[in-house]
């Protein structure tokens, strides 16, 4: 009986050492294998989103799906995307090649503050000649009215 108890203690002790990952435990049966020890590595930082992902603000509060960067646009240009912003209000502006604001308006997403909604707005602008331009969507800070969560794309503006 003592021999049986001692053998059981050794077996339990060996199992415990194998289960805990001790290097000192040597399995006596070829069928006995230790479970792999999980390893954890920090997630990789991605500088750019995967190809095809719409541009978005740093924290993802606003995305700009249309127009895409490099598009040639005429007036009115339809600007669309998704947003999770205060009171669902998405501000929009178009800048000409010199950085002058040539259009400014806002639209409302289908959901706001705590949920993501779609937005879409046709925005009229006027230019005399084809030129580079910038379309920006952003949220106005409730604190001071400054532009936050800004997303911009470079486009070609055509009269």
Write a concise synopsis of the structure shown.
Helices cover 11% and strands 36% of the residues.
Give your account of this protein's structure.
The protein is mostly beta strands and 159 residues long. It folds into 2 domains: 37 residues, no CATH class; 96 residues, Sandwich (Immunoglobulin-like). It is built from 1 helix and 8 strands; from the N terminus they run αββββββββ. The N terminus is likely disordered.
**Looking at CATH, which topology of the largest domain would you report?**
Immunoglobulin-like
Number of domains: 2
In round numbers, the mean pLDDT is 79
The helix fraction, in percent, is 10-25%
- Beta-strand portion reads 35-45%
User: Mind telling me the C-alpha Rg?
Assistant: 30 Å
Second CATH tier, the architecture of the largest domain: Sandwich
In total, the number of strands is: 8
Number of helices: 1
Distance between termini? 98 Å
Task: List low-pLDDT spans.
Answer: 1-20, 22-27, 37-49
Shape: globular
Give the C-level CATH assignment of the largest domain: Mainly Beta
- Reading the helices and strands in chain order gives HEEEEEEEE
Question: Which structural class fits the helix and strand makeup?
Answer: mainly beta
Query: Which strand order do you get reading across the main beta sheet?
Result: 2-8-7-4-5
Largest sheet: 5 strands, mixed
């Amino acid at each position: 009986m003592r021999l049986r108890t001692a053998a059981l203690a050794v077996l339990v002790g060996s199992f415990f050492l194998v289960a805990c990952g001790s290097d000192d435990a040597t399995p006596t049966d070829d069928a006995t294998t230790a479970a792999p020890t999980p390893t954890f590595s920090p997630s990789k930082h991605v500088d750019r989103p995967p190809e095809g992902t719409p541009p978005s603000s740093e924290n993802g509060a606003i995305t700009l799906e249309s127009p895409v960067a490099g598009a040639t646009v005429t007036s009115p240009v339809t600007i669309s995307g998704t947003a999770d912003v205060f009171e669902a209000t998405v501000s929009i502006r178009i800048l000409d090649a010199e950085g002058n604001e040539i259009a400014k308006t806002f639209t409302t997403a289908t959901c706001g503050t705590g949920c993501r909604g779609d937005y879409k707005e046709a925005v009229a602008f006027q230019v005399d000649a084809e030129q580079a331009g910038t379309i920006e969507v952003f949220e106005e800070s409730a604190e001071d009215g400054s532009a936050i969560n800004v997303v911009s794309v470079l486009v070609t503006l055509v009269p």
